[in-house]
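hey can u check if this looks right to u? its 161 residues, i copy pasted from the old doc so theres a chance i mangled smth
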Amino acid sequence: PIQKNHVDMFAFSLSIAIAHVLMLLRSLEVMICQRWFKTQGLYLEAYRNSRRDFIWIGIPTLFFIAASVYAGIQHYGENEGSSSYNRKLAASEKTSAGSAEDDLPVYLNLGAIVATQLLLAVLVFLVFGNFRKIDHKEWFVPMNIDYAIHRWGEWTMLLLG
């Protein structure tokens, strides 16, 4: 059977891209408040941590934005008259396709995850490598676990109703 052109990949990529852009804005806010406005209570470690997070989140965000733009062009794009496509997996041989969608958004999303892992490897190598004497307490602000568990519990209860 011919399947309709679903919006799934576009919505998935767009939602992840928006979440990462919001995380970038949060890091940018901390950097701006600490550097230019000298906000009381924000120390240099907060600036360094936010700058690291900005780079850490920024590179995969580019992949997610590219995936959402490409999936959006596929979904709303050139062939508006035909809204069917051929799925490579689970497609029967008798299926005909109007406009074929490819898997580039999936690979771009996968590339973002691989980039995150590569950035983690570089970060661990730079910070914990023997060739540089870096005090990790200057560059990493630990998470307040009690606060995080409390907030995640509130979020779970909010979702459960």
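The first helix runs from residue 8 to 35.
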